[in-house]
Amino acid sequence: MSTNKLFVLPGDGIGPEVMAEVEKIAAFFTKEGIAHFEIERGLVGGAAYDAHGKAISEADMARAGAADAILLAAVGGPKWDGVPYDVRPEAGLLRLRKDFNLFANLRPAICYPALADASSLKRELVDGLDLVIVRELTGGVYFGEPKEIVELGKGQKRAIDTQVYETYEIERIGRIAFELARKRRNKVTSSEKHNVMKSGVLWREVMIDLHKREFADVELDHMLADALGMQLVRRPKQFDVIVTDNLFGDMLSDVAAMLTGSLGMLPSASLGEVGAKTGRRRALYEPVHGSAPDIAGKGLANPIAMIGSFGMALRYSFGLGDLADRVEKAIAGVLAKGLRTADIKGDAAKSISTSEMGDAILAELRVA
Ligand code: IPM
Ligand code: MN
Fold this sequence. Notes:
By secondary structure, the protein is α/β, with parallel strands linked by helices. Helices cover 40% and strands 23% of the residues. It has two domains: 1-103 and 266-368, Isopropylmalate Dehydrogenase, CATH 3.40.718; 130-259, Isopropylmalate Dehydrogenase (3-Layer(aba) Sandwich), CATH 3.40.718. 3-isopropylmalic acid is lined by residues 90, 93, 250.
């Protein structure tokens, strides 16, 4: 059996708590001989800043680079509000994305029937929802230069962020979206704001070209990003695969996450190009939610998004699609039994803790 090398970055806030539940499951698979995982742990975000004065150390970057997949929980918190911009917790995550060229961020939003009542929308609008946001992750306004605040004198400053995309960046994210759609319901919605942004004009043009050249069998439509935000809360089930830029993707994926009942439910995968030597895509897996400092250390966090992210690693990095199915089935099974963490409690009589939820999922896996 081949060894799957995982580099684990629990990070800050609820990160260590939810990551512990993934480690339980990975240890179970290894012990039972179902799959073999070798786990190394590192520091990212505020935890890394406290230890090394940087948002991630060079040593941990090197270890991340040597792993088959990186699992990251969450970074940030009020404790680090005052630290210099370059070493703020988020810088660690952005560096991992950028240095490993993880340009494709897949953010599925699935509404489990058992949770449809936890959504802020009516049950019939979200029950059975299954869409994926494909967010461009290494370009756009997050990384464009110049990015600065300039002193203008007389108490005035000018802040600049730069939204910039080149053809190849749009093409490669488009390709990921079309290929994914072929395995799903065969529909891509591309989103930008070509009515006000040049980057949107190019984005739309490149998507249309790519579609014509390589993916004419897939249905493609276009929606302005503001309208898409509106449609996501109006009639979310119309979407299959949504492809959009870094900033719009950040916002729209939070909206999509909430449709499913809780931000604590959604996993994500960030993928790079296929390596010439390895034949694998470099990849980082993380929940969509943040570090939730307000509930950290209390056993209240929902570990499902983190466990689901591990499931995505099984599927996309380790070629263990059957095992990924098993993990997803175990999550659905636990929810169907009415087990709930606090964030998805709804009308349930009581909620269970982070580790109880992890144990319940593990128990489902044992019998499956
Ligand atoms: C996300 C987060 C990050 C982002 C932050 C933590 C830098 O919100 O992954 O969606 O904005 O990309
Ligand atoms: Mn976000």
